[in-house]
Amino acid sequence: MHADGSNGVRRHQRISVKLPVQITIPGEPAGQFEGQLLDMSVEGMGLRTRREFQLGTLIQVSWDKFTFSGAVRNCKKQWKGYHSPYDNYRVGVLMTTPLDESDLEDIMSGAWRKNLSQAAQE
To answer: DSSP letters of the chain?
Structure first.
């Protein structure tokens, strides 16, 4: 059982990705650092970071033109054999505002990049 009372089963399938992201803890003076987005669904995301989070911590995750807010649902120390610039913790985040399936597909497919480049050419 998780801290929020759930059994840990996800309601939506996550799409695997590996994108560098900026993580911000609103209101914390030294609350901005790098992480890696590992997976994402319409309601949540998985991150890898060097920082440990308390359950319930509100964070913002940004890359390119996107920023998502959410609450930390779990944070687990990773085993020490894996080395990456984002090592140490695997963090699960429940997004404050869920996405539409079509929005998630656009984000993950990179379709928004094509739309931006087309708009710039017009």
So the answer is: --TTS--S--SSPPEEEEEEEEEE-TT-TT-EEEEEEEEE-SSEEEEEESS---TT-EEEEEETTEEEEEEEEEEEEPPTT---TTTTEEEEEEESSPPPHHHHHHHHHTHHHHHHHHHHH-
pLDDT in tens, 64-82: 888 999 999 999 988 665 5
Is this structure's pTM higher than 0.85?
A: no
Domain 15-121 fold:
Thrombin, subunit H (2.40.10)
